[in-house]
Amino acid sequence: MPPLPAPRHTLPDDIQSLVVGTLLVALSVSLLKSAGLVTGQIAGLSLVGAYASGIGFGPVFFLLNLPFYWLGYRRMGKAFVLKTFAAVALLSVFSELLPHVLQIGPVHPLAASLLAGVTAGAGLLALFRHGASLGGVGIMALWLQESRGIRAGWVQLGFDAVVFALAFAVIPPLTVLWSMAGAAALNVIIATNHRRDRYIAR
Predict the structure, then answer these.
(1) Which of 31, 54, 68, 76 is the most exposed place for a label (fewest CB within 10 A)?
(2) What distance in Å separates the CA atoms of residue 136 and residue 56, rounded to the nearest whole number?
(3) Mean pLDDT, to the nearest integer, of 68-93?
(4) What is the mean pLDDT of residues 55-74?
(5) Distances from the Cα of 89 to the Cα of 61, 66, 94, angstroms
(6) Nearest to residue 185, comparing CAs of 82, 109, 114, 88?
(7) How far apart are CA 189 and CA 142, in angstroms?
(8) pTM score, two decimals?
(9) Which residues of 89-109 are buried (b: 16+ CB within 10 A; e: fewer)?
């Protein structure tokens, strides 16, 4: 069966995707923070940095992404970088604002981890399918998928291993193990749903 034709998105399509996708990932961050968990990718590294320094997730996440925009511009194009910058900025803002309007009560760490993985996976798919990412590892993962055929989810899984190794230094080992379950769920969602033969955004 030949691949499906690539959909063309309008500007309103892209805007709603950026807003909805980043809101879902911001909700994921809130779930993780409510249980003291981490995740993978730059978001996970930002959580580790936030826990270790006491600085908010939003500012740390925004700053860690800055070095990756040049790679995105060179490899993925101007439109991709502009959308990604907007998505990173939106997530940085939403993750700081959401706790003021949504209070999450006690949640079992495994439930929080898996729910965070599912919501983040859905949010990232929305961004990927509209030619954006959340920067950092997402830029490298999408570039490797488009240029080398290596699925984005597996690239991110490798980076996650490094993040979790660092997480052992700042949070309890059992909490890291709970966190891994959510990261695995997220990466399986990306690896099985973001495929060239199913859906390629333009």
Answers:
(1) 54
(2) 18
(3) 85
(4) 84
(5) 9, 11, 9
(6) 114
(7) 15
(8) 0.82
(9) bbbbebbbebbeeeeeeebeb
